[in-house]
What we know:
homodimer; alpha/beta; Rossmann fold; Dihydrodipicolinate Reductase, domain 2; Alpha-Beta Plaits; 11-stranded mixed beta sheet; 7-stranded mixed beta sheet; 35% helix
Amino acid sequence: MRNCLVFDGVCVLKTLRLGICGLGTVASGVVNVLSRNKEKIASRAGCNIEVVQIASRRKKDTCDLTGIDFTKDLNAVVNNPDVDVVLELIGGYIPAKELVETALKNGKHVVTANKALIAEHGNGLFDLADANKVSLCYEASVAGGIPIVKAVREGLAANHITGVAGIINGTGNFILTEMRDKGRDFADVLIEAQALGYAEDDPTFDVEGIDAAHKLVLLASAAFGIKLQFDKVFTEGISHVSTDDIKYAEELGYSIKHLGIAKNIEAGVELRVHPALIHKSALISKVDGVMNAVVVTGDAVGETLYYGAGAGSEATASAVIADVFDIGRSVSNDATQIVPAFGCATHLLKDALIVPIEDVVSSFYLRAMVTDAPGALASIASLMSSHDINIDSISQNEAEQVGDMIPVIMLTHEVKEAKINQAISAIENLDTTAGTVVKLRVAEF
Amino acid sequence: MRNCLVFDGVCVLKTLRLGICGLGTVASGVVNVLSRNKEKIASRAGCNIEVVQIASRRKKDTCDLTGIDFTKDLNAVVNNPDVDVVLELIGGYIPAKELVETALKNGKHVVTANKALIAEHGNGLFDLADANKVSLCYEASVAGGIPIVKAVREGLAANHITGVAGIINGTGNFILTEMRDKGRDFADVLIEAQALGYAEDDPTFDVEGIDAAHKLVLLASAAFGIKLQFDKVFTEGISHVSTDDIKYAEELGYSIKHLGIAKNIEAGVELRVHPALIHKSALISKVDGVMNAVVVTGDAVGETLYYGAGAGSEATASAVIADVFDIGRSVSNDATQIVPAFGCATHLLKDALIVPIEDVVSSFYLRAMVTDAPGALASIASLMSSHDINIDSISQNEAEQVGDMIPVIMLTHEVKEAKINQAISAIENLDTTAGTVVKLRVAEF
């Protein structure tokens, strides 16, 4: 803290000076919110917070840059001796990673909204932050404006957290909600989501669950105190989810949502992103559209849920500034690094064993298309029984007959994924079955 | 911090020493959770957390007291030089207030779950904490285990918070949920709630909204940075809510919940606790049973929601320990008082003008019992019109005829409470109306 408002030789209110890399949606939101709520934020943080420099390829008029030094040189910000905290808001890996590294090496705190960077390179970056006794904060990387990292890491600090599960990709949730409400196909809704700006031109990160996987590893590390293992996340997207299955699930009392699920179990840690059936009695099943929600379960607190906007200029800015506020509060109290990235000191983080998806236990929704012949349903039921899998319900939906094929829909009891895969192969080999069997996991809340 | 684990002359892990006043449900939960998750909590807080002394009138076996000094003298704890943090978990005003005052004067941090004490005496107590440079924390006082104070005060620090509204009394929510699901009367369900231990023998605090009002002023002060004004909260209970009105509201697409609502508007601050209709499209309308949920709306983040157990031994303990963790983290970093009670320094808190209920604007649900005569509905409609009140819907429910009386049910547009009261008097004076008109407010989310 090199800047200080002085009266009669006494520092009355320090100033935390921010340098921002990037001038996109989130950066503009940060400048706008900091300007609009300047006094309020200062009174909360115990110090003034001021943007002194912004670097971006292009100057834009999405926010008022009066009094802020504008440069096209991103390196200027991370090397600026008058900058205390660098906000990395350009996204992607290059040059974001190098900028963050340089800033940390220069003894600057870093706040980022870059989930991909932290999920894939976080272990090294947090070590670098530790070595330089500065903070690297990432609240805005997960679930937009929802203060979920703070809740997990501080608010629930008393708990052995057993699970974190959430709708952490607004684009995917918007698509599934539209498919359900309007009976429209995935491809059709995706085009609308792109037109509305919810989905990128290349929607892979969102619809294939990569974005959710990035966020999930951050949540899991904060909740369980483990190192990041992005490469171990099991990831399944929503492009194969059909309006038919959404409808059948609804009839059974379930919503289909794209979930990130992390569980802290005896065998290790489950890290998986996939579409899942959620019973409608669970609050999270009611989270629709672009909204995000995360359920955190602790041994003391039980089940808690956090809900809000998962994206957007000012919602994400709210989380970026919350991190700045934490740094400001610690700096204004002459403390450093009061918020370890994942709750505990980096050297205490565990290398958790990530459970392979084949060993994950859950209930399943299966749909097989069978010929409308006597005994077709019975033969599937007996086959499940011979594989030692209990069926919760099985029915064939006459109303949905296509030609001479009828969908048979099942909900199973809990069983290992490897075992259900064997049973599915066997069902697909039956003479009465056509094509492949649809398999969706059921998430319990 | 007077206690330290020393290796080779260097303090490697400090110990934060707790003294607990009380050995009830919450205190037992604290001892149990601290013991079970000892290592995890220490690694997060950066210091050991140890209960050194407990004072209570009676020794109980609800937790393991091995290694903890037990005394019947509550004053021993607050005067114990070996205690760094006092947990006030006895509740009520006497002797809780004096104990907290003594502890603060003795330079000890205090953590309390006592909403009544803080709501009614907080202004003085926080001043005392400031004067002694210690923290007085109250996360457990609001919404049990949900880290809502932290979310409002820190996670949303970037925001101008415009509103806080929540289901913050589990007993009331349980009663309303049972009334809806089983069509049972208030009095009937209250007896069950008492038998289940959800309601006290004297249920006044819960069902008349006093408990919710205590929590609401704490939330409002943390959210808006204002002094506590418990005496200004408008409070209406749920004992007058009938199963009929719950049913009619459901038919109109609304749930009836007992809400605490604080709004930060131009005219001042609204502070009110009352039953309210919530449209079923709002997530909070789905929060049932003893669960709590709080919606916080900020100018940057938009609407966020926090959900979890509002009571219970370990859920509340989770919040108590979260406060201890914050103190531990600050102490282990040689900082003091990093968390101002209501976000900003006490001297910056504003004396907000509390808006009188007569000036509060909302939509209303009204039910009048009218004679089944032609024109009865029309005369009410025209009377509303002559009072300049727009009606959103009005209908008379033939199926619910009692003798020759029929309920007429209305939803109005937004209007000042004083104005709706005048219209209600006029309706009650009509020859075709019997008895009083039922009035319930509609809460918008």
